[in-house]
Write a structure and sequence with these properties.
The protein is an alpha/beta fold and about 375 residues long. The protein is built from twelve helices and 16 strands.
Length: about 375
């Protein structure tokens, strides 16, 4: 809600005059934290009125309420978390529980959650649990001991549950990029829509023989992206399934070029690692990307996509946006608002780089 500022030499605050306007004053003082007394003095109101204005309670004009909030923000007043918690019966803390210890998916989600909640004065308490049910139980109990207002559960894939049942928690739970409880609120990226973006980009670049090289068929995301690819290309689609690695992308190109079948002029890869292996293998064979074969990946893992030569056009799952939506929903639920359960799929976007120039303007 409000940022915290420590002043080494002076404390600045607004002082209200008879006309109701606020005037900036600079007052020498010792190092310390701005208090509600400073806000009240700066806004020209009582301490009680200042407190009610900041907590959106009490009866007063909107002009007074906004003036108090403006002064509080200007002087860097940060309400005491314990006091706010006692008033509102909340801890202003959200737990984020994940088994994605590598952080590939959870970190962008967490950044989005934090961005959404920071202006509401809510902190995020992260716990990594590996795949251990016992560790998950311990961390979940620790979150409850800290009286978190809600829990966001995140994982490594959308079709696997965390190793703990959160459906009976005494606080609201939102599932983001993991399989949720049957009656829970669950957020996923729209894999099928993202796959269509990839294929449409290749078609717009002039590709007519498009191959899909992807991961294992045990993943729900593989099934959804493959189905969308087949519907988009029509004719005789070709899906090659393997593992999520550069080595598989390299091997898939070898199989394609050694098969004697017509060579593809476009490749849609199930993730950016596979795409990097594909592009490396094509370059070794003297095949130019994108002039001879255009390539599109999936994930927009920038540490990979931006370092590929040429840089990789890829589908972004917008995990930060998914995190922001998870933060918005858990905040609403913690404040007692009703949220309809079910799976919500958020749209992906296409990031255009040099490996395929079809579609939108380059990022």
């Amino acid at each position: 809600m409000f940022s915290h500022i420590d002043f080494a030499v002076e404390k600045r605050f607004f002082h209200g005059n008879n006309s109701g306007e606020a005037k900036l004053l600079t007052v020498g003082g010792k190092r310390g934290r701005v208090t509600i007394h400073d806000v009240a003095a700066g806004a020209g109101v009582s301490i009680s009125t200042a407190s009610k204005a900041l907590n959106d309670t009490g009866r007063m004009s909107e002009e007074t309420r906004e003036r108090v909030k403006q002064v509080a923000q200007s002087v860097g007043f940060r309400p005491n978390a314990l006091a706010r918690g006692l008033i509102k019966q909340r801890s202003f803390t959200i737990g984020l529980l994940t088994n994605d210890t590598y952080g590939r998916f959870t970190l962008p989600v967490m950044f989005g959650v934090s961005e959404e909640l920071v202006d509401h004065g809510v902190s995020v308490f992260l716990c990594a649990i590996d795949d251990s049910p016992e560790r998950a139980r311990i961390h979940a109990e620790a979150m409850l001991d800290k009286r978190v207002d809600g829990i966001i559960a995140s994982g490594k894939r959308v079709d696997r549950r965390l190793p703990i049942d959160l459906s009976g928690m005494p606080v609201p739970v939102v599932y983001a990029f993991t399989q949720g409880a049957d009656n829970g609120v669950t957020l996923h990226s729209d894999d099928a829509q993202g796959a269509r973006l990839a294929v449409e980009c290749l078609i717009a670049a002039g590709c007519r023989r498009i191959v899909h090289i992807t991961g294992p068929d045990s993943f729900q995301s593989v099934a959804e992206r493959s189905e969308a690819y087949c519907q988009a290309v029509g004719g005789e689609p070709r899906v090659m399934r393997g593992v999520w690695s550069e080595l598989w992308g390299h091997e898939a190109v070898r199989q394609l070029w050694d098969s004697g079948a017509p060579k593809p002029d476009g490749v849609f890869c199930g993730n950016d690692q596979i795409a990097r292996g594909v592009i490396d293998a094509l370059r070794e064979r003297g095949v130019r990307v994108p002039d001879d074969v255009a390539v599109v990946g999936f994930d927009n893992w920038e540490i990979v996509a931006a370092q590929v030569r040429p840089p990789l056009t890829t589908v972004d799952m917008n995990l930060k946006a998914l995190g922001r939506e998870a933060g918005r929903l858990i905040l609403a639920m913690s404040e007692g608002h009703e949220v309809t359960p079910g799976v919500r799929k958020l749209p992906c976007s296409l990031v255009i780089r040099q490996s395929c120039r079809g579609g939108a303007t380059p990022a």
